[in-house]
């Protein structure tokens, strides 16, 4: 048992005010096809979560296919085409998900050799793949170049010569972007305009390192320099930070165009502004307004291009969480319900579920907050202060630190946590030898296993 | 990419002062058989880490069998026998490790059905197994009772009736302890004597909940109440916190003995004081002095028993990290070495390795600190300020936040991180589809794979 994670005292969000409100479902936090039937049972895409629990066991991730696909389409439309929208596969990747992304016409980001291998195993069109990473190995780069990926995002000087060497060996020219740290870090609604340069990714714009890296790409054999990339933050809710970063990158772009031979300059036309599109984890949050932000961003990029006198580039974006996040929920079975008394006579109810930090590390790692409902029935009684905890042998194994829950929640109930599609399964572990849950897809009243539950045999088979 | 983990600014420990010091090996932080050969290559148990890297690839966990076993023996001797020392398997479990623990005569703690299954698959003697958990399912309890485990540690009132029911179904009597929160929380050298009750584990002593739970166990059919359990903290370095907790538990014990029928009272003889035995992660730390703390603790328990007028109980302890932690190191290959300039003209060197938060989440999760050396050679040059980062697509993927490293560390070097035996492999994930490394055992100049490296096929085979 590692040291207790001292969660910061959470500013009291607008919490559930009544049992009635707890039984309602905040539509903007749950997959679009979520409903509560007249008998009180929650369903997603017409499949009752009670059926899911019975058929596939708990815990289980439930993925609403329509929800996932509709977010792909909405982003593609807002940004002028699927080829502009790169699904960031690190949020959640599987072969099936790669196929959905391909079918919806989107592009794909991979950040490791393993992610690229999954995409290729799913026959994702390599000419729509962009490759990221601060430490790409020769093997990874070779696989990427040989597969014919569209773009590789350069992250260090060392990588320029390594990739040039690889491309020369393979015998082709590889299109590249240069990752720039523009000194803009957005954290939800606020941003700091001169920070975040002290990190492993990219080249600093302010120091001139980014400019020098771009010129090195131009000079490198078999690399074709196509544009600039940046990433400004996570859970961003408006366009301001993206716009500021774009303006800074376009100024650099103008400087490059002055120095580059015309032919080289004409190839430069991609401005990749990264991901970070915010979603609503909690009822009092509103997801980033995709259409509004896209329109604003594209307009401001056009203005800024005009202002610095460069041709307007295409704008690529890299949403991961904004596509996968809200499309999934996790269903757990309630086990122990325990009122913990302390010496100062306070009582807190601990509701234990059959998963925990192994299937969702985000509360412990990022102090992330999640919305909770009961899936098998409408519950009754007054609201009591609860903490939702997992089954791990660690006191920091907390899924929701503090929330009001009606007091008749009891062992055997099904507890659902919303918006677990991003960075939950993908970061899952087997801590305490708890097996990874399955991912079950639902659509039009039917369910299917996308990824099966792991078993003790999977674990034992690793030991020779 | 989730929000950046803002690491607190680390109080500057006594850092490496010179290149010479960096090339030396702090013996108390590394496995006991670690050495640097005349040619500069580090070896563990006579096996050069360069050979390990070549034969098994990187990253890889290297486990010094002698080190692991010698810690088992040392603890068993200090606490009066192996049956008193329960290896906490959550720190790191495999079938082979269970066999080592069994051969050294120790007992075993499991905290989940999966851990119990691994132990049983290794033929660990069930009569030496203690079962923990805040949310044990009926299936888990049934497997435990049917297997004939020694002790089950009761964690809720609900569990008392559930376990009584299970034991009755199986047709046997199950020995149990009651987990008590004595209001003692130890965090390294300091402890707070009235806190830590607001957590999912145990029954509060101060509120009377623990007393009532104990009496409920006595009354429950087919349960045999054998004693009390508590856990005071992690990375504890002296006996004071354990002693205070023991004194509090023994007072409760005396109260119980006054109320219980003599026959019931006579069965009460186990005081389990949990784990938390501190190890040295960094050169300026010293591990808990096992012999000194054990002697002190046993003496104080004897005194306290005498004082409150109860027969002296046996004392069980539950070290996990103190056995597995220092016995393992992780070997990585250095990839990108990059000097990151920022607009305020500071430069920090980022050394990327081919693993990261997937094989060691502890720096990101607990702000844990680790010691780093170069394994393939003695390095030269002045010390420069570095950050050791992994290959994940996340800026918080930091293994060591800030340390001085000689400035000729370069791509291709082997970087070793010490004391990764506990809570690294056991909490490992496949984030970014990076595969779990192998665990390689070394002994007497020979190496062997204990757990093989995962492959992309392992991942893809989960998808139907």
The protein's oligomeric status is: homodimer
Taking the sheet with the most strands of chain A, its summary is: 9 strands, mixed
Number of domains of chain A: 2
CATH class of the largest domain in chain A: Alpha Beta
CATH superfamily label of the largest domain in chain A: Alanine racemase
Give the distance, in angstroms, between the N- and C-terminal Cα atoms of chain A.
27 Å
Cofactor (chains A, B): pyridoxal 5'-phosphate
Keywords (chains A, B): Amino-acid biosynthesis, Decarboxylase, Lyase, Lysine biosynthesis, Pyridoxal phosphate
Organism (chains A, B): Corynebacterium anserum
GO biological process, one term (chains A, B): lysine biosynthetic process via diaminopimelate
Write the layout of secondary structure elements.
Two copies of one chain form a homodimer.
Chain A: H1 19-23, E1 34-36, E2 42-44, E3 47-48, H2 49-56, E4 60-64, H3 65-78, E5 86-88, H4 95-103, E6 107-110, H5 113-121, E7 129-131, H6 138-147, E8 151-154, H7 157-170, E9 174-181, E10 185-187, E11 190-192, E12 203-204, H8 209-219, E13 223-229, E14 233-234, H9 240-259, H10 262-267, E15 270-272, H11 290-308, E16 314-316, H12 321-324, E17 328-341, E18 347-353, H13 362-366, E19 372-374, E20 383-389, E21 398-406, E22 414-418, E23 439-443, E24 446-451, H14 456-460
Parallel strand pairs in A: 4-23, 5-6, 6-7, 7-8, 8-9, 9-12, 9-13, 10-14, 13-15, 15-16, 18-20
Antiparallel strand pairs in A: 1-2, 2-3, 4-17, 10-11, 17-18, 17-22, 19-22, 20-21, 23-24
Helix pairs in contact in A: 3-11, 6-7, 9-11
């Amino acid at each position: 048992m590692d040291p207790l994670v001292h969660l910061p005292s959470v500013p009291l969000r607008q919490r559930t005010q009544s049992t009635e409100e707890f039984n309602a479902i905040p539509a903007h936090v749950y997959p679009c096809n979520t409903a509560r039937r007249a008998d009180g049972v929650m369903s997603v895409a017409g499949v009752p979560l009670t059926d899911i629990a019975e058929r596939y066991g708990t815990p289980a991730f439930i993925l609403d296919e329509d929800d996932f696909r509709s977010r792909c389409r909405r982003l593609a439309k807002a940004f002028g085409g699927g080829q502009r929208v790169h699904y960031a596969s690190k949020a959640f990747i599987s072969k099936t998900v790669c196929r959905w992304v391909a079918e919806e016409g989107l592009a794909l980001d991979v950040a490791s050799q393993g992610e690229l291998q999954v995409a290729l195993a799913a026959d994702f069109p390599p000419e729509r793949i962009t490759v990221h990473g601060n430490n790409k190995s020769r093997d990874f780069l070779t696989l990427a170049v040989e597969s014919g990926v569209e773009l590789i995002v350069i992250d260090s000087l060392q990588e320029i010569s390594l990739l040039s060497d690889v491309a020369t060996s393979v015998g082709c020219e590889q299109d590249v972007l240069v990752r720039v740290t523009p000194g803009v870090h957005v954290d939800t609604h606020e941003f700091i305009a001169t920070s975040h340069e002290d990190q492993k990714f990219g080249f600093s714009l302010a120091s001139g390192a980014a400019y020098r890296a771009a010129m090195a790409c131009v000079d490198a054999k078999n690399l074709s320099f196509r544009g600039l990339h940046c990433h400004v933050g996570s859970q961003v809710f408006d366009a301001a930070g993206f716009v500021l970063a774009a303006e800074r990158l376009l100024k650099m772009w103008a400087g490059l165009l002055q120095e580059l031979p015309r032919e080289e300059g004409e190839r430069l036309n991609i401005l990749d502004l990264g991901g970070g599109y915010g979603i609503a984890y909690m009822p009092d949050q509103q997801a980033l307004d995709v259409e509004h932000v896209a329109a604003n961003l594209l307009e401001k990029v056009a203005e800024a291009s005009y202002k610095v006198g460069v041709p307007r580039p295409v704008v690529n974006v890299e949403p991961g969480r904004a596509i996968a996040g809200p499309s999934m929920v996790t269903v757990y079975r309630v086990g122990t319900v325990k009122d913990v008394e302390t010496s100062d006579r306070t009582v807190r109810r601990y509701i234990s579920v059959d998963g925990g930090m192994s299937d969702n590390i985000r509360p412990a790692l990022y102090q992330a907050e999640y919305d909770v409902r009961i899936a098998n029935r409408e519950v009754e009684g007054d609201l009591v202060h609860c903490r939702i905890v997992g089954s791990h042998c660690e006191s920091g194994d907390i899924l929701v630190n503090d929330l009001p829950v009606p007091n008749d929640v009891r062992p055997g109930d099904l507890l659902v946590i919303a918006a677990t599609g991003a960075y939950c399964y993908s970061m899952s572990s087997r801590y305490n030898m708890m097996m990874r849950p399955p991912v079950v897809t639902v659509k039009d009243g039917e369910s299917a296993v996308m990824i099966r539950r792991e078993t003790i045999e999977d674990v034992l088979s690793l030991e020779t």
